[in-house]
Amino acid sequence: MTTLTLPKWNLPIGDGRKLFCILGLNVLEDMDLAMATAAHLKEVTAALDLPFVFKASFDKANRSSIHSFRGPGLAEGLKILAAVKQKFDVPIATDLHEPGQAEPVAEVADLVQIPAFLVRQTDLVVAAARATMRHEGLLHVKKAQFLAPADCRNILMKVAEAAKPDMTILCERGSAFGYGNLVVDMLGIPEMKKLGAPVTIDATHAVQLPGAKSMGELGSAAGGRREGVPVIAAAAVAAGANGVFLEFHPDPDKAKCDGPSCLPLASAKALLTRLKALHAVAGA
């Protein structure tokens, strides 16, 4: 399996490497929250000697309701992310939704993320791949809820033909299972790794209840099962995942987006300590 490296940061991801940690907020709310969250997560990961990429979205375009909070938008959001990057000397991950966002996003983000629902949008994938290549970053591509693990081969081929091979990290985030529910098949993680790309687990969004407040109860915002995040993360690391994608908030119940699926910021140290130990045992 290919080991990839963020060249500007010398941070590798792949088998035999340290557990790669993409950690942060679901969505940017304001500068102070971004700074406080990044400071805490950098302190925790530094103490554990784990590679850390700070993640936050500038826009949550895929919302259940037109009234849902989406974030500060492209210009203000990238300004906040650039400030976090400069202050804490950490790489940045964020997602994009339109081809025209690729260049400005890749200027700031070292890890450019393709959302799960958009992985088959050729124009977006091509634009993101080319912009990310120009700025010497990597792509973080989430497997869609409707794709089988083997289908990710087509995504890797598309990126390779549009830009270059060996620049994509694949991300498992669950598959649609009936209405308002997701499940994660841990057998998919080694299947995706067979394609030659490192694999991460988005344990946060894997516990979402899309379009439902709770099991069987439809709502105007996605629900979630916060208590399941450590379970999914631990199982995926044991199954060979090379990295974890986790979202935190100082007070998840007051988070402006996807609060039911994110973890309290204070829980980061204990969870990452456990995941690091599991990763060592798994030997991935």
From TrEMBL:
Keyword terms of this UniProt record: Cytoplasm, Transferase
Organism domain of life: Bacteria
Location(s), subcellular: Cytoplasm
Reactions mediated catalytically: D-arabinose 5-phosphate + phosphoenolpyruvate + H2O = 3-deoxy-alpha-D-manno-2-octulosonate-8-phosphate + phosphate
Pathway(s) served: Bacterial outer membrane biogenesis; lipopolysaccharide biosynthesis; Carbohydrate biosynthesis; 3-deoxy-D-manno-octulosonate biosynthesis; 3-deoxy-D-manno-octulosonate from D-ribulose 5-phosphate: step 2/3
UniProt enzyme class: transferase
Record-annotated DAHP synthetase I/KDSA domain positions: 11-271
GO molecular function terms listed in the Swiss-Prot or TrEMBL record: 3-deoxy-8-phosphooctulonate synthase activity
Keyword Cytoplasm: yes
E.C. number: 2.5.1.55
Cytoplasm is among the record's keywords: yes
Record InterPro entries: Aldolase_TIM (IPR013785), DAHP1/KDSA (IPR006218), KDO8P_synthase (IPR006269)
Pfam families hit by this protein: DAHP_synth_1
Chief location bin: cytoplasm
Protein family: Belongs to the KdsA family.
Name the UniProt record assigns to this protein: 3-deoxy-8-phosphooctulonate synthase
Gene: kdsA
